[in-house]
What we know:
This protein is α/β, with parallel strands linked by helices and 286 residues long. The chain has 13 helices and six strands. The chain has helices at 9-26, 31-38, 42-49, 57-66, 72-84, 95-98, 103-107, 128-136, 143-156, 174-178, 184-197, 250-266, 270-284; strands spanning 112-117, 167-173, 203-208, 222-226, 235-239, 244-247.
Amino acid sequence: MRRPRAQSPSVRRRRLAAELRKLREESGLTGATAAKTLGWQHSKITRIERADQGINQADLSKLLDLYKVSDERYREGLMQLAKEAKQRGWWSDYRDVFGPGALPDFETEASIIRTFEAQVITGLLQTPDYAAAIFRGGAAHPASVVERHVQARLERQRILEGVHPAKLYAILDEGTLRRMVGGPGVMREQLQHLVNSATRHNVDLRVLPFSAGAHSAMLGSFILLDFEDPLDQTLAFTESVTTSLFLEEPHQIERHNDVYGHLQGSALLPGPSVEFIEQMLRDDYT
């Protein structure tokens, strides 16, 4: 049985923060005035409105009273958001794999995921053997550790399943297809998996060929996460050897949107992209 889409505590906290910031502004109060009225530190209001921390039911009730929110259904909805913001997602069981600021925490509730990969096949479309080979990457990890990372990756991929799956737009640099990962057998299976995945209604797969030359994302891979609720602003995600970073400032999102648009213009369309991969299978893996 396919499980329903998981809820993201971090997305819920961001949504609640946006609502509370809007209510405070509509009430004509500054953050400092609201905090002083309630006997709180100003930093507490700031952290709550930035979604840096959650809020308990008692404090939320005080804020709603201060902002003169009388609609009971609306109050109950915000109380429910506060509760959901404290729940743990499935990825919390893989803290050793994902670390802090886990991508699945936001990815699991995204309605649209746009990704550009310059080095490896996007994680959401990796086969188990390919994922294992990527994780090893020349390092001598115990088999149990490798298996745990692969399991975590397969769990992530479930967001593409179910009744209302996320929509994935994936642009793969040709280099991700050419790089030999795990040997010919692993690559053959991985490329065929891409061909199969491209037939899914919620997967838009495109290849950025070497022939496209220099492009707007020469500096590396990134992911854009879009959400159905207008209060949940788009997020950009990038990572390096030592850090993972979420970006949400309007100018940062605008720049990533522009770059992704340029990439789509340079990449092959979905149909020719599948033909490109199928030709690779015939030329290199038959």
